[in-house]
Queue: 3 jobs
Job 1
Amino acid sequence: MPTPPYAWFSARNALLALSLLAAGGCSQRPPASACGPVAYQLSDPAEPANRAVFAFNRSVDDYLLAPVARGYSALPKFTQQGVHNFAANFGEPKVFVNDLLQGNGERAMTSLTRFIFNTTLGVAGLIDVSGKMGLARHTSDFGQTFGVWNIADGPIIELPLLGSHNLRDATGRVLGMAVDPFGDNSDTVDTLTNVATAGAVVDGRAELLPITDWLRTLPDDYLAMRDYTAQYRADRVAEGKLGAPGKRPASCPGGQADE
């Protein structure tokens, strides 16, 4: 699942001070379950301000990002797949870091192996060689990592150009943009990073078009987007808590307890 819409603004030098705010917020999440949607709680005390930012984000999306994404969707499928694979491969090092921070060794090994194989055998990631070998891609981020550590969600924050987040995920998002596993000592790497970021934004927005088109048919698109994102993030945290790829809790049919 791609990052929710409006997540296209690069702010690699954003203030890390937001990371100090992650401990605040609401009640912690109930135990993880992969058998269905995970329960979540919402706290939106700044809803009027959030709605104002949402209206701005919606305008930017309507007049810029969504039209670009629709044009991208008209490109040949192999072109879109190449962009998707390249952007996903470039993000694997951050996935690997968060897998380690979550204590998910098997997932970390999968991410590292995918990055090595796809970068070398897959022409810098344009071809998902690892997927053809049975190593399915997964995603991990700092917001998910904080959730695995049982840091509370916190109140809802609508970030300019970045969309709806709870405080924990907003902190993780800013931290994720500031952390660069490749370093800043290579103009080539910086160029590839910018290309991969742009590709990920457009490709992710295009993938979300059917969902956002549907959400906007609902009576209140702010509430629809907020609740959809909150459910998606709750499911992501539950996925991280399960640990190994494909693992199911004992409460699920055919599942087994975590070791």
Note: Strands lie at 156-159, 163-166.
Job 2
Amino acid sequence: MTENSSSFKTNKMEYIGFAALVAGLLMKINHLPFSGPLLIIALGTLAIVFIINGFQRVGAGADYSPEVLDVLQEQREEKQHGVLNIMTGILLAIACIGILFRLMYWPFSKPYLSIATVGLAFVFGWMYFVRSKATTEEIKKKYLFKLIHVAIFFVFAAALNFASLKTQIDVENWNDPELARLKYQYMSNPHNEAYRQEYLDYQKTR
């Protein structure tokens, strides 16, 4: 499989992942069924795509002449591009995992989101600097798309990282304050069987 076809397939997977993520979020805040599985598929797919893309050469697919390609391969910056690309892919994947865990109220989301928040902020600054030193417009364009990805997931991860559990529950259940109250009461006291039963009983009446 050529680098171009591989990149094309991961791009298609990425578009599908983003579309599924948007649909899953809309379904979740509107309390529609199957939003959880859709979010798992969407963020899982994006995490895999980011890892794969992280180990692809930044300039893959660019239309270089042999002379220009020889010059690029001899540059010391080539190694820096590779390390940055791998770090970006790994951190974006960690952000996807942290976001998924937080949206699903699974434990251990905080470490993932904290790593993603700090790491993506660092990567954004480094990538912006490296992009300004890039030798071709093709590489600059690819870095621009990566910067957009990093910015989007940084904002998302940071928002969830610093938002309280109550804030998240209130936003998710914006159209039902009583459900939000009971859900927060139960989730902040997970071992209280009375709170759990009260929450489940209210859900049955909706």
Note: The chain has two domains: 3-56+72-163, 165-206.
Job 3
Amino acid sequence: MRVRFILSQIGSGLKSNIAMAISVVLVTFVSLAFVGSAALMQVQIGKLKDDWYDKVEVSVFMCPADSLQPSCAGGEATDDQLDDVRGILESEALAPYVSKVYLETKEEAYDNFVEQFGDEDWAQAITADQMQVSFRIKLVDPEQYEVIADELTGRTGVQQVQDQRKIFEPLFLVLNRATVLSVGLAVVMIVAAVLLITTTIRLSAMSRSRETSIMRLVGASNLFIQLPFMLEGAIAALVGAALAVGGLWGAVDYLQGWLADQITWVNLVNTADVWTIAPILVLVGILLAGVSSAVSLSRYTKV
């Protein structure tokens, strides 16, 4: 009997404030969609770092014949200097940091150059003798680039130590800023959702003040009086959360199908990632309803 009464009160409240209930659903949907987008953006950044940082190398470019670098004052790097650098890279001191060392000769550098730029007119004037020898170093931890740079930068015969991670940093910076923007918009929308849910519950409580007064007179508990109003907000917020999850799932599924054949070198977020963050969105929806209910009901249905 009590459950039937509570359900009837919920239905009555939703019907009498249908426009406000729809508004709560929509604003919750939009706010949680931004929250979910920010979470998926961070998942995508994590995947990019896992994929690309695992592939990047540290390149140690040895001195060519015409370099103006102070460390190249003696001219092109000699065989002794090459052996010296290789010895450092393969030493016991750097063993915990260096996974693999590969020497790229002038001929190999030229072959790679021709493969990338051979069709360009300006590339026809380049010869193998103009290339420079370099070491390609695979690190155990790509974040430990500074260890190699400190050991080799400025050493005689070494022109430059280059970390390929720096190529990707601007991209990650843009993605992180996009995440911050999404979070900022999400916070604004969540505040709007709290205010709207609070207003909806307040109007519902005021419109049924007569019923709540009678319930107080017959000895109904505070929880029994407040429960229908709390569930109204929770239902609206959960519907909004469900729409947010569905919208994100549809967007990711569409983008994944559209971009999968065009961008094969990127491990994109997928629908499984959406389901991973779905409980978080539902929890945020429940918290929205809980906070809003606590604010409203503390005044308008207080025993």
Note: The first strand starts at residue 58 and ends at 62.
